[in-house]
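Possible regression after last week's pipeline update?

I re-ran a chain I had predicted before the update to compare outputs. Posting the input and the new output here so someone can diff against the archived version. Not blocking, just want to make sure nothing changed silently.
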Amino acid sequence: MAIASPSALDDFLFDLRGYLVLKQAVEPDLVDDLNGAIDALPPLGYEEWYGNAQRRDYNEATGLELHNCVEAGEPFERLIDHPGWIGYARHYCGEEGSYAEGLFIDECILSVRTSGGHHPVHSGGYRGALRGAYHYKDGLFRCGQCNIIVALTDVGPGDGATMVVPGSHKSNFPHPNAGDYARLDRMDELEGATEVYLEKGDALLFVDGLMHGGGSRTKPGERRVVIYRYGPPWAATRFGYEYSQALLDRLTPERRMILQPIPPLQPPSADPSAPQTA
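New output (post-update):
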């Protein structure tokens, strides 16, 4: 599969709206393998570990959120540098054209949401964290973080689609109805927000500084997505997750470079035959 690259229209729309929909970014066989890996997961309680992955739901309404999911099975490893979006990530948040060029996966999360679930609104350009901020300067994108949400099930009306406020990544004002997240129970109620519908295999790409969240799922069944968050290579994982040596050892050099762009620098092991100083 050839590596997809952003077009001039992609750049225009990404700058304008803060997001793009990448149609059929993931091949059907990989989608099936990912769903099979999810089906094989044992029941997990909150903060319980599955190998080197951990269930860490944002709140009770968001459903199962398995963090560090790249450790949850081989199909998740294939998403690290997937050609459906890796060229986009390098272009928008990979420090393109600089001495620090490269990528790092900040977070990777499996999300399974059932009827009644949703995710509250967050982010936005106003007083946003530099970690997820949108920047474009001197002809280059310098975003702090770009998110890829891969749909493993069709996500249409009533399925709890990701919701965004287009253009809010560059907002200089707070949304008057989103300042107090506690008062805004559901993002469905937020003026200016729109649902982004995806077919199974589509990917939603957006800068993390865009106001976003999850609409209410009203249908039975499950909404399954995988979220991979890319940033520059000098970043660190948000919650301090580390990748197991077993995973790093079996990855291709290209994939390992994304998970561990800057390997630990340590002095060589002491040679017991070398002269010792007092």
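Follow-up from reviewer: compared with the archived run. The chain has one domain: 8-259. Marking as no regression found.
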